Amino acid sequence: MSEKLIFLSHITEEKELAKIIKDAIEDEFAGFVSVFVSSDGETIKAGQNFLKVIEDGLVNCIAAIYLISPNSVKRSWISFELGAVWIRNTLNQNAGLGDIPTLPFCHSGMVFKELPQPICNLNAIEANMASKLEFAFRSLQSAVGARGRLRTDFNELAAKVVDFERRYVLFDNLEKVFDILNLSKKALKEIKSKVQNNSSSEFIVSFDLVPTTVEKEVRDILHKIPNDLIKVQSEFLGMTVTANDSFPGCKLQVIFKMELLKDYFNKTASL
């Protein structure tokens, strides 16, 4: 019997999570299912027409999973791939051929009440909860036509999702700190070169003068970052007058845990 195809829609930044879900599904339904993941380096071979392969996956899948985060929900590819399966499902229902399960996996801070139309009409799950993952796998089991007890350790799978979320959201907030500090790509490359092979436990970025609003914005972000991975020290300088402006200013030190910066730069190919 040929393997049935499950289409897994995701954005490139979330390919690590896509691989986690793909491996879990293929391990659970070994021999019955293959999971289409465009970023895995295997599904789309060198020289193949990228769009044509995706179209074939959307046409042939018996179920679809969508990784939905605050980042991915804004991307056109998610809407394109959702729309394709949505229409296929409607045509199947009209022809009496049964449903094509369409499962949004919410993660990294995406909550149900913030899901836009038409995704909010689907039965989404929280991808970091074992019971919800099991529910989704039951739906896939029905679509595949398999029976019996599921073998997946859903607590372990949920823990892997939580670990991904922690790092993914952490790096997103780290980049917000970089933006607030107005660190250019050149400045980040210089920091990266200083961080590599640095045995210190912390890395300090210092500013002799910034508006106090910058300090406040950084501190607001720090509430979302765990374990004191970033700290702030400041010294108020009073009202500052420049050629173009006047503002309350301060000296500012932003202290990063070295392990955080190393992990970030190791996973950021664009720097």
From TrEMBL:
Lineage per the UniProt record: Bacteria, Pseudomonadati, Pseudomonadota, Gammaproteobacteria, Enterobacterales
Keywords: Receptor
Protein name as catalogued: Toll/interleukin-1 receptor domain-containing protein
Protein origin, superkingdom: Bacteria
Pfam families, A to Z: TIR_2
InterPro entries on file: TIR_dom, Toll_tir_struct_dom_sf
GO terms (BP aspect): signal transduction
Annotated ranges, domain TIR: 6-87
